[in-house]
Specification:
mainly alpha, two-stranded antiparallel ribbon
Length: about 425
């Protein structure tokens, strides 16, 4: 016995909501996978528009494709709403910084002075009385603390001239596109889980509509059309439910609010942790200062302080050294000591990492400020980075649903 205009068995109709639910689930899962993977373009890149995930034969995850743009938008908002680098660096205590660096600095200075003095005045330095050499050591102890303290005071004042935090973060995300993926995946873990599951629920509801239409009109194009609509609509609805409504609305006993926005406290903690562990950590900050585009400013500053320090350090040896080598060679020796100090200091900088991390306290700062943002501001930290590409994500879901719908057509022929 057949039913409906097509005289099909009843189960042909009853299975449609289930298939539509599965299509909704699978298309949402695949759309999310295609959002994040592959990290690099996979396929034959015969033709490809710049900053687009698709090529003539291949695909790259939407977020990895837009890593530079997304990181730029994200960190623009972060540095305007969550971080003030000058304010952060003001937390460094130059005296404490000098204290944690003292042992490593003295070992470095002792090695440099001995090496340069042995090279420029070997006989004089070798035969120099122990009491005189001890005076140099005492001078190092006294002056090294002042050297680092005054240098770090200037670093704090001119941090914007030696550290481009945006360039640092964007470059890191472009170099390692997985970092952008990780930020979004960990912050939106529960929302992505919702997108996957909601595909089945929303798809099943659309499947009921499809079943009703197919009962009275069984054209072959109905299945591909509803497949496209299921794939499109389930993605669209899931994304809307995540971010809308922007502010909570009370409807009777229920409060309607975007599910991502409701998790502001939790997401803020995750966002701060991931960024500070993966991108904004002390090692990366110092590496950017030492090797980034503004590093010449840092080294010019360090060289100036090193010359002043060297003058104080070897001042007691000046009469003896000039007698032994002449004033020109003495000046060369001072310049070489200053140069070696400027080159050697970055190598011992890791001794300051633990103190710097504790003093800057960036993770707690980002978390606390993010938790205090208004809902529109909070949404603005993450949502705009991929908002314009939502239509592509939704379209991908629609195309996948269309293919799934077309695959069902032979069942009804």
């Amino acid at each position: 016995m057949g039913y409906g205009v097509g005289d099909y068995p009843l189960w042909y109709y009853l299975i449609q909501p289930i298939i539509a639910g599965l299509v909704g689930y699978v298309t949402n899962v695949l759309a999310l996978e295609m959002t994040f993977r592959p990290i690099e373009f996979f396929g034959l890149e015969l033709f490809r528009i710049k900053n687009q995930p698709w090529g003539l034969f291949g695909w790259q995850g939407i977020i990895p494709t837009k890593a530079e743009k997304m990181a730029s938008v994200c960190f623009d908002l972060m540095t305007t709403k969550l971080l003030n680098i000058k304010e952060i660096f003001d937390r460094l205590d130059p005296s404490k910084f000098s204290e944690v660096m003292e042992d490593a600095l003295l070992l470095m200075l002792d090695s440099i002075v001995d090496e340069v003095a042995t090279e420029h005045m070997p006989k004089v330095w070798t035969n120099l009385p122990k009491e005189v050499k001890d005076e140099v050591v005492v001078a190092m102890n006294i002056e090294s603390e002042e050297f680092l303290r005054t240098f770090m005071e200037e670093v704090k004042i001119h941090v914007d001239d030696i550290l481009d935090i945006k360039e640092m973060t964007v470059s890191a995300c472009v170099r390692e596109k997985r970092l952008v993926n990780k930020i979004f995946q960990e912050c939106g873990e529960k929302e992505f889980r919702f997108i996957r599951r909601s595909g089945f629920y929303f798809g099943s509801l659309f499947g009921l509509v499809q079943m009703g239409v197919f009962w009275v009109y069984d054209a072959n194009w109905i299945l591909p059309l509803f497949g496209f609509l299921v794939g499109w609509a389930t993605n669209w609805l899931a994304l809307k439910v995540i971010f809308r409504p922007l502010n909570p609305h009370k409807i009777g006993p229920f409060t309607i609010h975007g599910i991502f926005l409701k998790r502001q406290q939790e997401v803020s903690e995750t966002f701060a942790r991931v960024n500070c562990v993966e991108i904004l950590h002390t090692k990366a900050i110092w590496e950017t200062i030492l090797t980034g585009p503004l590093s010449p400013n840092f080294y010019a500053m360090l060289r100036a302080h090193s010359i002043v320090f060297t003058e104080k350090l070897v001042g007691g040896l000046k009469p003896l050294a000039i007698t032994a080598m002449g004033s020109d060679q003495f000046s060369e020796m001072k310049e070489e000591i200053a140069l070696k100090i400027a080159r050697g200091l970055p190598e011992i900088m890791p001794h300051s990492y633990q103190y710097t991390t504790e003093a800057l306290d960036m993770e707690n700062t980002i978390r606390e400020k993010m938790q205090k943002l208004s809902y529109p501001e909070f949404e603005g930290v993450l949502h705009p980075a991929f908002e314009e590409d939502e239509i592509l994500l939704i379209f991908v879901g629609g195309v996948l649903g269309l293919c799934a719908g077309a695959a069902q057509v032979p069942l009804y022929l």
